[in-house]
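Case study.
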Amino acid sequence: MQDKKAGQSGLVNLILLIEITAAVSIMLLGFIFQAEWARDFMIGVGMIKPMHTQVDYYSYVKGIEYLICFYFFLIFPVFFMFVNKREERMADNQP
Amino acid sequence: MKLFAREKQELPIADHFKADGSRWSLKEKLLLGLSFDDYRQQLLRNPFNWLILIVFAVGLPIIAQRFLFGLGSVTHASNDYPWGLFLAFGLFGMVPLSASGFMLGTTVELFGRKDFHPIERLALLNGLLGYFFAVVYLQVDLGMPWRLPYPMFVSLGPAAVLFLVAWHVATYLSVQVAEVLPSFFEWLGWLKGKRMIRSMVLGLTVAGIILSTLHQGALGALFTYAPGKLHPLWMSANFQWIHFLTSAVFGGLSMLIVVSTFSKWFLAWRCDHHFLESLDKLTLGLAKGATFAMITYLGIKFIAIAHDKEWVYLFTGWGQYFLLELTIGVFIPMMLFAFAVRNGNARMARVAAFIGVFGVLWNRINTALISFNWHMYQEIPYWKEAVITITIFTLYLVTYRFILYRLPILYEWKGDK
Amino acid sequence: MLSLKTAKAAGDFDHYPDSMGVLVDVNRCVGCRSCEAACNKEQGLPEPEKPFNDYSVFDEGHEGGGHGGVGRRTDETRYTVVNKYEVPEIDHPLYRKSQCNHCLEPACLTSCFVNAYTKTPEGAVIYNPDVCVGCRTCMIACPFYVPAFKYSSAFSPRVMKCIFCYDTRLKEGRPPACVEACPQEAMTFGKRFDLLEIGRKRIRQHPDKYVNHIYGEKEAGGTAWMYLSPVEFGEVGFDVHVPHEPVINFVRDFLSIVPMVLVIWPALFAGFHLLANRKDAQHNHDDIDREGGE
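After joint prediction, the assembly is written out as follows.
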């Protein structure tokens, strides 16, 4: 019973992970090949715009950096659990 | 309370059930199992409580004055020294002394050193209360305390160091509440809640390390906004944050030794034998950590002087004062800790811890008040500012004691866990 | 079309090339305090104890007074003050007006955790009291000791500081009230870029009357208000130790470490945990893995 439950949450984690991986890959590919939409997106959210002062520039980049960190905090525990659960099941099968 | 504990077998309360098998009610738990009259009597018998009463009688009206008539009515309203005693002592001083929470959490939960378990909860509580009261001090000092959540939800300035301090102190406070909750749930008898917290203890601990690293550092980094105002010896644009972080390590450990010593002296009736018997050994363990942090700190302090080429300042009056701070506040406790560990002398470690706590406070006040505007005049806080600072500190002591009397911090709960 | 190149060259900023500034010539100021009076009226500040034609204020100190030559400073009742300085080289006293210098890279702005400050394209550094929390970090950060706090108020305190008459004048391209009120033309209003030229020209034409430095050209990364002086700037109350780079440069080191700690620490310490408890994990995996959960 517990094994099944662990398996299920493992599956959910796996799906989540695949989704995140896919999304990140598409974004990276977009930027690597300089897709027009990637540039439009960056201009749209203000990632590319002229900055007149260093202090405004810092307010801006720090905001983006912390947003990335925030999303990292959401992803990392899921990723950690996903990796760790596998180990548990292996240990279960051992004896 | 000492007297009652001697008279009655079932006191102090450490179980859900009385000797006759019936359950303690919440009210009885709050009154420590005494009748209301007994409880009042033991309060009045303690001369320390009278001292507290006097402090409150003087201090609370002055706090009211601050909130009704503005900061200008209780401070010198200095535009040159915008930060006074409330922040120098209350925020910059209390926060490093509260680093004990994340360090013992890391030791026990992350590195699995279960032998430090008897003192872990005291460390966590010390952290929680220190932070909470740092925020209380901050609330007294802020011009518009009712706007405290603005940097989180209303108008964000992410490039500011204080932005980090605000976010980290707020999230870390929640983390610490979660870390202390298990003892509250045990006392309350709500085990489901405790299990829930236990299941995320690693996440909480890691979050604690991250948040502590950053905002202990951020408190230091706040001073990098005033590179020309601080005396160069107390100011290092590159290393200020890591100076503050490192001194918080021994500050927090020293504070934990101090608090555990007070518990041993004045709350022995509340401590169980686990705590009392292992305390000497644990004190030496903490002392070892503190002494290593201190020698590291001395090392990086001198590296900062070398990095900014400030040797010439050492030969001025400020330099003497700086060296005095390092000698009394860091070097002497470091050597005392070292000898204490070598000779297994817990008493010496306790003496060192008192000096260590003083050393950290002294450093923070030197940084924020004494060496600030060193080329101008020296601000001496208005007496009402000092009274408010003392009053809030007394409130801190009262809260601390109230919780230690009740929750299973210094003892293990005998009932279901 | 923007190219990615602009994003890469982010270290260089133009600081609004058309922004305005003021050049103050300490040589020309006679200490009449007309600028103080004009500012008081324009900004609706409280009437001072001593009228603006009372020159005994030049003998006042501040914060209890008597603190060796500090002179008066800006506070919650005044956005600008003129101070008097006796210097040995010159037989008459010199006067120097001080107010917010409107930095190109304002320290107050970068230290503010609620973004209460804005550097406008016109050159002013303005302040929004509606979001200010009253932490007073801007006052710590300002290298010129300009922002003051309304300590006298319990329910509506705020930072008080010169805003270059932004709302009433600068926005429409007009000079601030103090500049207009000056009978000596001690202050020149114009584009900062042009003012630097004017300043250099004055120094070149009268090398005997000016020291070869424009205070504010480089101080704190450059300011919109700049000064010319006949004597070394330290003698007329300027802080000559103000670093020649913006205050944010001193804070940058720490700011760049923050996201590194945020992203590296989780795996680092979760890794320590796994390493430290590896043995237990094999013997008693149940217990440890439950702790390993979120």
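Observations recorded in class. Chain A has one domain: 2-93. The radius of gyration of chain A is 20 Å. We will return to this complex in the next lecture.
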